[in-house]
Each structure stands twice: as C-alpha cells, then as structure tokens.
Design a protein that fits this description.
mainly alpha; 85% helix; 87 residues
Amino acid sequence: MIYGFGLAGISPWSLLIILVIVVVIFGTKRLRNAGGDLGGAVKNFKDSMKSGENEVTATKNATKEAISDAKDDVIDAVSKVKDSTKS
C-alpha cells in the first residue's frame, strides 16, 4: 500500500511501533528538548531571512534615492549650462 508519503510498504501500524521504540529509547524529555531546539532553530532561521530581506529593501531604496539625486544634479547642471550659454 502507498499512502501518498512515498513510503511504499510502511503501514501506519509500523510507524506507530517505530514511534514507540524511539520514545522508549530516548524518553519523552529528550524528545521534547530536541523538538524545542528544532523549533528555536527554525524560528531563528526565519528571523534571519526577514532581516536579510529588510536589508535588501533598505539598500534598494537607498540606491533609488541616490539615482534620483544624481538625475536631479545632472538636470540642474544642464540647466545651468543652457542658462550660461544664453547670456
């Protein structure tokens, strides 16, 4: 039987037996600690990804402002040159 998990030939009863064996070997306290550590690692990873995205957004905004300022400076310089040639 295939249950959609890509685990051909493993029944839910087999998975339950494996779970019981793991709990007996490691104990619930160690498994709970491991689960908490894994959850903390996932949370830290997500927070790092968010802060990285925020840094990228800030850099893009700063670059857009710099380009806009540079365009304004060029336009001002061109206007000054045109005004000086008219005089």
